Here is the input.
Amino acid sequence: MDAAFRIHSSLGPGLLESVYESCLVHELSKSGIVCQRQVGLPVVYDDLKFEEGFRIDVLVENKIVLELKSAEALLPVHQAQMLTYLRLFGCRLGYLINFKTVSLKSGIKRFIL
Here is the structure.
């Protein structure tokens, strides 16, 4: 979360999600934290396999899902999306981070399964 706060303090709100994503991965990597961008996960439904069912914005240490937004407000669908990602990927911890806020603290939601 420190990296997200540094980025938000430096760049401010309102940029594209992809900018915050690149900066966050850069900051985490500088700190020696293993992370990946745009991690795809196949989805299986009734013997059908969809290779690119969804993409996780940032996966940290193969166990924490970060879903980044740059939206006016976090909606219930964003929270539902995060819970689906956690369940399908098999992770227990995730953070939904909305960078389009005056105070980043109000734009962070933690999810635990």
